[in-house]
Each structure stands twice: as structure tokens, then as C-alpha cells.
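Explain this record to help learners:
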Amino acid sequence: MRRAAVVGTGAIAAAHAEALRSLGDRVELVAVVDVDADRASAFAREWGVPAVHPTPAALLEAEDLDVVHVCTPPRHHAPLALECLAADVHVLVEKPPALSLGEIDALIAAEQASAGRVATVFQHRFGPAALRLRRLVAEGVFGRSFVARCDTLWYRGDAYFEVPWRGSWDSEGGGPTMGHGIHQFDLLLSVLGPWREIRAVAVRQARAVATEDVSMALVTFADGTVASVVNSLLSPRETSQLRFDFDHATVEVEHLYGYTDAHWTVTPAPGHDEVVTRWRAEPSGVVSSHRCQLAAFLDALDAGETPPVTLADARNTMEFIAALYASAFTGGVVKAGELGPDSPFYATMEGSGAPWDAR
């Protein structure tokens, strides 16, 4: 049985604990850490965790662990992952895995010197429908990809940002582009493959934060597919939507925080009804969830393979975010691979500064 620990016992930690419990005798949650000792103890009681440690260092010294689940605010993700890698322990880290391209490159370098591996939580990649979509795309069932749309239209009022670490570049690394829409466009990227260039805008419309509260991007992919990506925290009718227009069908999903097959529709192009038959051949009622990704994570460890989502995968998504901000804040087109260590957007997503800071 694998031995796991959770660092950070805020709201998202419950999803990890539930996933760990649901996998039965494959993995055991043996310890937790939180800066708030009372919260850590309450979490341990609720989930039947035998040990509570005051710090990650104390945890790594005291416990023989296979994996640490990092569920802290974003600014701690990369430092904690580095600490675990130094101890040769695997890491499953909540999104975003780092606050900048520089940080994720430091993780990649540290991973190369460690027996541990880092996987980022992008659970929507692992729902049965997403797995099926990527496979059918690879098999050519849907034909060539032409157009896509990715909308994360959520609502977060002023009270949401009363939590001190929210809404700042230093603690979150960005606004809805970094912390909310990332799940949807990561799934988009996992289906469409490498992106080539981005044209974007980011604005602060209504919330008293340092970051944006809305961003929009036009993206061209390596295969010529064009896509729009919208990330908003100002949308009272909340929805998460993806649409892919292929030669042989339109594939769509609309949900909020998790999907099943029931949230997906496939509309065939004239003369291509067989794509619907292929899609419906493997029905599933499983919800895209932390459980799905954790199961895939453990499967990879058992097989001696690198767990998904790798740091290279996560870096592609992080580069997309950095390019979106760079385009929005400079007014230019940003191409893949353009943001190296000499770019201000390599060290921080804010880069040379958000335009509203100069007003």
C-alpha cells in the first residue's frame, strides 16, 4: 500500500482525502500538515489520519512516504515540491504547480536529480469522456480540427477576495487565467496539442484586486486550428464550456466543476453519423474528479512509469498563461517558445506590469 500525506488542509484538501479514501487499499493517508494546528487536527479527526506534523520538514523527516499532496495556496506550491523532491518523494500538486516559468523550470531541474516525480492536478483530463475524445482524435475518427472555443465564465464576488492570498500576483500568480480557467484550457491544450501563437487582452473590470478579473485570447495551434479562450470571474450565470469543430463532427461539453458523459454532445457533419456510434460505444457515468487522476497516478507508479500530468505537460500550460499575459500587457502577438529567461514574463506572470497599475 502506498503512503500519502497532505500538506495544506483547506477546502481543496477534502477532495484529495475523498479520492484517497475511495481507492481503498491502494493508498493510505497517514499524515497531514497545516500552518493552522487546530485546522490540521480537525481535518485529521474527520478523515481518520493518524499523524499531524507542524511543518513539511518535520513530516518528511518522520514519515516514510510515497507521495505528498500539496494543497496549499499557490505561492507555496513550487517551494514545497522542491522540498519533497530533495527527499526523493513524489508530489501531486494542485494547480498551478508554480507561479512562473522560472519556477517550473527550477522544478524540472530538481526533478532530474531526484527519485521523486511531480504531477500537477488537472483532473478534467482524466474523465472518461476526455480520455475517449483524445483517443478518437488520435485515431482520426473526427477528422481534421478547425475551430475551438473554451469559456470559463464564473462568478466571484468581493467577499471571495477577502481571503488575504487571493487576487495578488505574489500569492496567486494571476487572476482567473491562472487560477480558474486553467482547468478548461489545459483540457483544450491536451486535445489540440501544441499552440503556435496568442493574441490576448486582460482587464480589471470590477474587483478590487491586483490581477485581472477577465481575460480573452485568440490562439492559433500548430495544426492550424484557431480557438478563442475566455476566463471571467464576473459572470453570474456560471458555466464551463468547451467546443471543438472537426471536419466530421462538433464535440461539446458544458458543466461547471466536473462532468460526466451526460454533459457532452456530439453533432455529426452530414454523412458522418458513424462518429456518434463510436462516441456512444463506451458510455460512462464517472465524474471527472481527483479520484480519476489519483488512480492514473498510482497506476503509473505501479508500472514504474512517470505519473501524469508531467512537469513538461504542465509547463506547456504555464507557457500558454505567460504568453497570454505577455500579449495582453504588451499589445503584441506572442509565439510559443518566445518567453525565455530574458523576458520579464519568465520570472513573473505580471511581467513588466499590468497596464492598470500605471493609471
Summary: The CA atoms of residues 100 and 316 lie 12 Å apart.
